[in-house]
Amino acid sequence: MNRVEGLEKVTGRATYAYEYTARDIAYAHLVQSTVARGRIRSIDTGAALATPGVLAVLSSDDPPDLAEDAEPQLRFFQDRTVAYHGQIVALVVAETLEIARAAGEALRIEYDAEPHDVRLRPDHPARYRPEKVNPALPTDTGYGDLAAGLANAAVTVDATYTTPALHNNPIEPHAALAVWDDDGGLTVYDSTQGASADRDTIAAVLGLPAERVRVVAPHVGGGFGSKGTTRPPAILAALASRAVRRPVKIAVTRQQMFDVTGYRTPTIQRLRLGADDKGRLTAVAHDVIEQTSTVTEFAEQTATPTRVMYATPAMRTTHRLVRLDVPTPSWMRAPGECPGMYALESAVDELAHAAGMDPIELRVVNEPDTEPESGLPFSSRNLVACLREGARRFGWDLRDREPGVRRDGRWLVGTGVAASTYPSKRRPAEASVTIENGGFAVRIAAADIGTGARTALTRIAANTLGVSPDRVRVEVGDSALPQAPVAGGSMGTASWGSAVVKACEALLKNGEHGTADTTEDVESDSELARHAFGAQFAEVRVDTDTGEVRVPRLLGVFAAGRIIDPDLARSQLIGGMTMGLGMALLEETVVDERFGDFLTDDLAQYHVAACADVPDIDVAWIDEDDPYLNPMGAKGIGEIGIVGTAAAIANAVFHATGRRVRDLPITPAKLV
Ligand code: MOS
């Protein structure tokens, strides 16, 4: 089955936020602060407003009326504080984008700058303990006697790993078109991972009842988390549109995106592991330091996968934050699990080496019977099967026992392995299905952010109804449809699919029409540890003269419940692994400590993996029959692909060279 909207997409007929039209559109341009901390002393709009075609300048000179309790990042122009470099300090609205941009440059903004601090460091004096980490998990956890576990261990690892700030780079940067109708209703064509939640946030920020706002987003060119919350264009387009009484469009440029649509926090992670002479863990400690902003708290749950992975008699996980003069970090594919598992799975590899054990065998002997920290039974857990199947497919038994021994001309060659995990949850959703024109129309405010959600839901509906998929039409991406959670946390298909199945079952019972609300089903889900698992294998070649690392082979084997659509699953998993390869070798948002801004703010400088970087990525999965998840038996697959990839590559670099790089990305300079 092809993607149902595939033809529309490849022929350019699929409409994205910025491509919508309305009568008499005006264009707005974001103007950003040029200091990282301080106050706006004055804004001289004279030259900007005198520019022909300029309609309005919005700024803190005339604060718009916004809800007091709204998300602080969306309360624009309420005061004159500058909290980070690149903060939106004004919005210029004009007849054309070019005029808006030119007038933005003509604004004269004076600042009273104050000294800023943008560098995350372990000994930071302002380090503090957040109350919770995302979404509402305990900050610090622990059990057993950690000191004894470490003291009595036959082998130990005590290592600190660092990851840089990373930025989501969806192909489609954030954009919105806002249109007010005559009786005060607002329509926003937005690029969002969830029309229902976006509508609710826009309404709340503007102080409107939710039913007066509609969000339309049928096609979204990627998000990875950066579109999981309402971003500046939606709110600012609505404000500007109200000010000039015309529809207003805003496109965030690629460079602006680095400041105003979130990023993954840098991390400093200390891992301490102990094991007995059989490689069985005696202690696991994972202590994380990460950053947030002075605007609002974002506490990434970096150490949480450690609470899930391995059997140990003693464990501790902690998170500390530092508020810096930076934009607020946000969601980026597998927030928490991705950087956390880079550190844990690197440390496990170091432990295997120290213990003289094969890293797969070390993981197998530490396989837990129940979730280590909670003691809950797993709904299903097939990490060992993934490791074994991956080893078989990858040819792991041919691996050299010692690192740094295999040479091919100038290249050192090595292989590495790491585990993956990601929670499998679902959220309440509503859906409807109606017989129309001899077919079935399924409606749900789900989001297709490039994942193929429409296609997966078409299959799910067809399967439940017992009809061929071509008789099912799925409508998503509009808050006017039955409300649904965001495409996030790898929960989309599980959440939306549960509602679609239930609506289809209602139709089969009633005849013409079926509706569903899964709130009670989700609330009554039994208490179990539900997670997907996987094993990642990498082969690397390291140029001994230049330090260049190439990855000729990546293999991921996953256990993620029932796979609903093999082509879509393959794409998601390969996409995640590709992003993980970028994290391992290429991606890094460099911070300019002097000026306090992000230096690498375009695709020429922020390097994402390109085709030539990924010659051979393969994906396989273990068939998993898990009845404790949802009617489809499916676990999420959107995020687990990125989890563990960077560790597998870093471990392969160690195996190739005998050198352990604990600071991502592994650039040539760190190897020569
Ligand atoms: Mo994803 S970071 O859960 O949108």
UniProtKB/TrEMBL annotation:
<feature type="domain" description="Aldehyde oxidase/xanthine dehydrogenase a/b hammerhead">
    <location>
        <begin position="11"/>
        <end position="115"/>
    </location>
</feature>
<dbReference type="InterPro" id="IPR037165">
    <property type="entry name" value="AldOxase/xan_DH_Mopterin-bd_sf"/>
</dbReference>
<dbReference type="Pfam" id="PF20256">
    <property type="entry name" value="MoCoBD_2"/>
</dbReference>
<dbReference type="InterPro" id="IPR046867">
    <property type="entry name" value="AldOxase/xan_DH_MoCoBD2"/>
</dbReference>
<dbReference type="InterPro" id="IPR008274">
    <property type="entry name" value="AldOxase/xan_DH_MoCoBD1"/>
</dbReference>
<protein>
    <submittedName>
        <fullName>Xanthine dehydrogenase family protein molybdopterin-binding subunit</fullName>
    </submittedName>
</protein>
<dbReference type="Pfam" id="PF02738">
    <property type="entry name" value="MoCoBD_1"/>
</dbReference>
<dbReference type="InterPro" id="IPR016208">
    <property type="entry name" value="Ald_Oxase/xanthine_DH-like"/>
</dbReference>
<keyword id="KW-0560">Oxidoreductase</keyword>
<dbReference type="InterPro" id="IPR000674">
    <property type="entry name" value="Ald_Oxase/Xan_DH_a/b"/>
</dbReference>
<keyword id="KW-0500">Molybdenum</keyword>
<dbReference type="InterPro" id="IPR036856">
    <property type="entry name" value="Ald_Oxase/Xan_DH_a/b_sf"/>
</dbReference>
<dbReference type="Pfam" id="PF01315">
    <property type="entry name" value="Ald_Xan_dh_C"/>
</dbReference>
